[in-house]
Design goal:
2 copies of one chain form a homodimer. With about 425 residues, chain A is an alpha/beta fold. Chain A folds into 3 domains: about 1-130 and about 300-315, Rossmann fold (3-Layer(aba) Sandwich), CATH 3.40.50.720; about 140-295, Dihydrodipicolinate Reductase, domain 2, CATH 3.30.360.10; about 335-410, Alpha-Beta Plaits (2-Layer Sandwich). Chain A has 14 helices and 17 strands. Chain A has helices spanning about 10-20, 25-30, 60-65, 80-90, 100-115, 135-140, 155-165, 170-180, 190, 195-210, 230-235, 300-315, 350-360, 385-395, and strands at about 1-5, 35-40, 55, 70-75, 95, 120, 145-150, 220, 240-250, 255-265, 275-285, 285-295, 340-345, 365, 375-380, 380, 405-410. In chain A, strand 4, helix 4 and strand 5 form a beta-alpha-beta unit. Chain A is elongated and about 75 Å long. At the A-B interface, helix 2, helix 6, strand 12 and helix 12 of A face helix 2, helix 6, strand 12 and helix 12 of B. Strand 12 of chain A pairs antiparallel with strand 12 of chain B, so a sheet runs across the interface.
Chain lengths: ~425, ~425
């Protein structure tokens, strides 16, 4: 019998209690031990919940109880998650967390403490919810040199973009609907500005290269500027727009970004819709592989937490090598990454053809009926080159009344 | 330094040598040891290959060399693969195989020997080529009660069906093309009759329930009867036809089958095309998750073999619990499984409406211009009930000149 404590009885924490209860027999068989929840740490009381008698308010009780071997952190945020997790590891306990903010900000240090203490710090649930993606990177694709990871890693933004794509909704309406359904928070900034995706792609990249990746080094752009008109063009072009977190690894060079990207129907992530997540991993031997499933939600995420608890239970007295070292991985500047660029320009192509060709070279042109604008899709070029071309074009056009570039979306087509 | 031997220097065996060589540094880091190929067992010589000096023709050399800790079997077939693998395990060596025929036929016994000997018998590459699917079942989805596994598990048939779907080819032409490209063998029976898929779904089902599943108990139907006309209807209906290996697990009951199935655009496996494989796993907590990638091919499959070699290297002195016991899992009869049925019937619906409704109940009707036939899609019913209805309908119709049912394809819509 192994005793565990859960810190934070919110959505995921209560899901963990539920999974442990409902799948008790399977878990026991696979873990080799029964896993019993001894404490649930929360500021609140939950008198009507199945864990009512396990609720405690003082972390010290967990820290000092030697019987507790596995601590689950599902509080979110950095404070007090960070000091509690660190203290738990230092007390020789295994820690399982679903908290990507914690892993992205302090993973290097926490992994190092776990290594020194001979315990495990596991975080499958911090990326991709219930989809196994962290563990495949250290358990399944071990013979591979990972060359690319591209993920639709945020269910909220994917739901919003799917609504805009399939139902022609505006960003504002789609966001409101996501909020009404509980998919988006009242303050949706972390999701819609791409911050959540950024932390997740930083974690996946660090797993792939075995070095620390500072999420603040990753260029991050959200979806707030994407409009229903962009999707009208996308429909005409047979494409869609998805929020990607991507990193490409070539020798020791890592390029990474978070941005809305226009993709075609043949892209493996094209069919990842609604709140689902999908993660494409390219290995040098394997080629592309894709992992798809529920990227969020109470029970799927809790299931990933429980899988980590089972791994900890199977390795109670040993540290499973995984994660990354404190060596720092440089992230190449966004300017050097190559894309095609989808650009919407005011006015009519007929009047601007010469300037367009002059600044952007050979392009595909798209026009929608009834709009005083047109769109072009450039050949592949480095982001820096595109920015210079776009600035040059805008300057040249400044004198006109139908002036300027209205939108730019990177395209992988 | 760990010494390994490869038995069978065909496509996959030579791929294993190549992956070990090309990714030497990554593999060494993750395995914690360098893995060196000491012997390559084959009847042939390969004087110009990089393993020329490692070729041996006598299995005894491997069996008796205590330095060899990991034996890789990539010969295929049962003889001599089975006696060689068994002898290797009995000699206390870890065995890694890509051979689904071997695992489906003798897995139970070989797993039991490995357990007794304290070594590992690993077979990630036997299902899904390079896609991690065996290991996720025992490493990642451990907290889950698996309720369904549905896979497109055979690249050859998926290539043929994709050609028929997208390019309107006949089965015969698509098969010939697959043969010309080396995707299908001269004798394509094992692929097109579904035997390969049957062994793979038997292995996955046994992994999920932890008991032996006899692949001969699984109803198996191939794709040889699928025609270009079926795909014309499918196009009109917005569906596609895929060869599924499926098992559903409810309490202790397992239903499993291999058959071509008509599915809609919203099915997670709809977009799995060409030689790619996709495997949908439904857990009681996770909901649906999907694994997608190269289901065959030299390097992807070899990469899965190497991942198993790394797992063996990490557990040189311990047996990793996985696989299934010798307890036998009953497979429910096909008659009890429920589907909708797509049925093509000679003649015109106008003349047969009464009989159709009488035998099949409420149906959707589809007609293609210029064909003296029509198709119906039934409501969901048990296969046994459908067969009785179809037999009754055919008997009733016998007197007519435009007699009978021309095609039946199960539908999951």
């Amino acid at each position: 019998m192994i005793k565990a404590a859960v810190m934070g009885y919110g959505t995921i924490g209560s899901g963990v209690a539920e999974v442990l209860e409902q799948n008790r027999d399977v878990i026991c068989r696979r873990a080799g031990h029964e896993i019993e929840l001894k404490y649930v740490l929360d500021l609140r009381e939950f008198p009507d919940s199945p864990v009512a008698d396990k609720i405690i308010h003082d972390f010290k009780i967990i820290e000092e109880d030697e019987e507790v071997r596995i601590v689950v952190e599902t509080m979110g945020g950095l404070n007090p998650a960070y000091p509690f997790v660190k203290a738990s590891l230092l007390a020789g306990k295994h820690v399982v967390t679903s908290n990507k903010a914690l892993v992205a900000a302090h993973g290097t240090e926490l992994l190092e403490i776990a290594r020194r203490q001979g315990v495990n710090f596991l975080f499958e649930a911090s990326v991709g919810g219930g989809i196994p993606i962290i563990r495949p990177l250290y358990r399944c694709l071990e013979g591979e040199r990972i060359e690319e990871i591209t993920g639709i890693l945020n269910g909220t933004t994917n739901y919003i973009l799917t609504k805009m794509d399939k139902e022609g909704e505006s960003f504002e309406n789609a966001l409101r609907e996501a909020q009404n359904l509980g998919y988006a928070e009242r303050n949706p900034e972390a999701d819609v500005e791409g911050y959540d995706t950024c932390r997740k792609i930083a974690i996946l990249t660090a797993m792939a290269v075995g070095k620390e990746v500072n999420f603040e080094d990753i260029y991050t752009e959200g979806i707030t500027k994407i409009t229903d008109i962009d999707f009208k063009y996308a429909e005409k072009m047979g494409t869609s727009i998805k929020l990607f977190g991507t990193s490409r690894i070539k020798k020791d060079k890592v390029s990474a970004y978070v941005a809305p990207v226009m993709i075609g129907k043949d892209h493996p992530l094209y069919a990842v819709n609604d709140v689902f997540n999908g993660i494409l991993v390219k290995g040098n031997m394997l080629g592309p592989a894709m992992f798809y499933g529920s990227g969020a939600g109470k029970l799927p995420t809790a299931s990933a937490v429980v899988a980590d608890m089972i791994e900890a239970a199977q390795n109670l007295d040993s540290h499973v090598p995984m994660g990354w070292s404190d060596e720092k991985q440089k992230v190449e500047p966004m300017e050097d990454i190559c894309f095609r660029f989808f650009v919407r320009i005011a006015g009519s192509y007929r009047n601007k053809e010469a300037d367009v060709k002059n600044f952007f070279g050979n392009v595909d042109v798209y026009e929608l009926y009834g709009l005083d604008e047109f769109a072009v899709l450039t050949r592949e070029m480095a982001e820096g080159d595109f920015r210079r071309a776009a600035a040059g074009f805008d300057t040249k056009e400044q004198a006109r009344s139908d002036f300027g570039i209205k939108q730019m979306i990177r395209a992988v087509l």
